[in-house]
Amino acid sequence: MYKYHCLNPISEAGLARFTDDYVPASDMKGADAVLVRSASMHDLEFDGSLKAVARAGAGVNNIPLERCAEQGIVVFNTPGANANGVKELVIAGMLLASRDILGGINWVQENEEDGNIAKDAEKAKKAFAGCEIDGKKLGVIGLGAIGVLVANAATHLGMEVYGYDPYVSVDSAWRLSRNIHHAKTADEIYKECDYITIHVPALDDTKGMINKDSISLMKDGVVILNYARDVLVNSEDMVDALVSGKVKKYVTDFPTPEIAGVKNAIVIPHLGASTEESEDNCAVMAVKQVKDFLENGNIINSVNFPNCDMGVRDKARITILHKNVPNMIGQFTALLAKENINIADMTNKSKGSYAYTMIDVDNGGDAAVADELQAIPNVLRVRVIS
Ligand SMILES: NC(=O)C1=CN([C@@H]2O[C@H](COP(=O)(O)OP(=O)(O)OC[C@H]3O[C@@H](n4cnc5c(N)ncnc54)[C@H](O)[C@@H]3O)[C@@H](O)[C@H]2O)C=CC1
Ligand SMILES: O=C(O)CCC(=O)C(=O)O
């Protein structure tokens, strides 16, 4: 029996994939796996039973990745599973920033009792006029799952699109429309574009990237969209830029006390991934990955350990999460040889400071062997799945 706990509501489409040997737990105590969306896990303690954390979504800044790795807990996310939901809301954000749709709707609500509203609307509407996005320049910073979809969609709406991503993956590059201009620096985007949208993770080098210096390079009246994370934008500098009119509109999916209520900020309550489809996609992918890891030891879409897949297990499988230091495999194989255990198949992969070794064995592989392996320095967690 495996136990899982959901720290946020997770779509039933995913949870229904847990088979009878999985039981939901009302808290994290004794859970083998935790499923989470945006809940912060930084202040939580993890007990020894926890083996996997699955983020049903993309951003993992709510999870202490390093601490999890040190405790032998594999953290997964679900790349691309909610990208279309975000893309559609970004397009909506560009339109809301270009036409005063919100002002117009508010006017109608405020005048709902007016028996002459049809005629009065024709006079009032000039206050809510705007511009079109067709022909305007859009800069997309971060060409991952979301950035590529936004960039490609914007070209179909007649925008001239510039993309910047110094670490773009081969997969993303293949999916990117050939009509996108390749910006070689972020400054090129800042200087050229009428609309700028950021789709990068919250990392040390991206936090605060939109600040008074980057804004000073931008065109007067630029529109900035942030559906990635609040910390990417320096709030104080953004408020100043909105007040001065340098930034015409700031559309953000992240309400903070500093930005909520500021004139010309269009603030959405983190709705990018809140669609039936995105919630289902993320949950299905998260549950699939957790099951494959618990049952077969396979790691797919981890953010703190290397991906490693030996397919469906048909004999005992020993899995070892360990530090990426010399002579680990030598010690594992020597120990198994000493116990007269024959290795049928084996894989080792590394990612940064951490590594993973999977060993299928023809015989043996019991708790005593697991304890011996666990005692090797720099081993983080050993499991024998049989
Ligand atoms: N508002 C919402 O509901 C959602 C927000 N997000 C946020 O959006 C972010 C992006 O999501 P995805 O596109 O799915 O992730 P992704 O991992 O597919 O793409 C991120 C891209 O950013 C690029 N990048 C990293 N550092 C960069 C830098 N300094 N300059 C330019 N590019 C850089 C990477 O190379 C990668 O291509 C997530 O990390 C998350 O914070 C994601 C999903 C939903
Ligand atoms: O689960 C959510 O609604 C948040 C999605 C998100 O921000 C992400 O996937 O990074």
Automatic annotation (TrEMBL):
Keywords: NAD, Oxidoreductase
Reactions catalysed according to its record: (2R)-3-phosphoglycerate + NAD(+) = 3-phosphooxypyruvate + NADH + H(+); (R)-2-hydroxyglutarate + NAD(+) = 2-oxoglutarate + NADH + H(+)
Catalytic class of the enzyme: oxidoreductase
Pathway the protein takes part in: Amino-acid biosynthesis; L-serine biosynthesis; L-serine from 3-phospho-D-glycerate: step 1/3
EC number assigned by the record: 1.1.1.399, 1.1.1.95
Boundaries of every ACT domain copy: 317-386
The organism's place on the tree of life at top rank: Bacteria
One Pfam family of this chain: 2-Hacid_dh
Coiled-coil parts of chain: none
InterPro entries for this protein: ACT-like_dom_sf, ACT_dom, D-isomer_2_OHA_DH_cat_dom, D-isomer_DH_CS1, D-isomer_DH_NAD-bd, NAD(P)-bd_dom_sf
Protein family membership: Belongs to the D-isomer specific 2-hydroxyacid dehydrogenase family.
Functional note: Catalyzes the reversible oxidation of 3-phospho-D-glycerate to 3-phosphonooxypyruvate, the first step of the phosphorylated L-serine biosynthesis pathway. Also catalyzes the reversible oxidation of 2-hydroxyglutarate to 2-oxoglutarate.
Protein name: D-3-phosphoglycerate dehydrogenase
Biological source species: Bariatricus massiliensis
The organism's taxonomic lineage, starting at the top: Bacteria, Bacillati, Bacillota, Clostridia, Lachnospirales
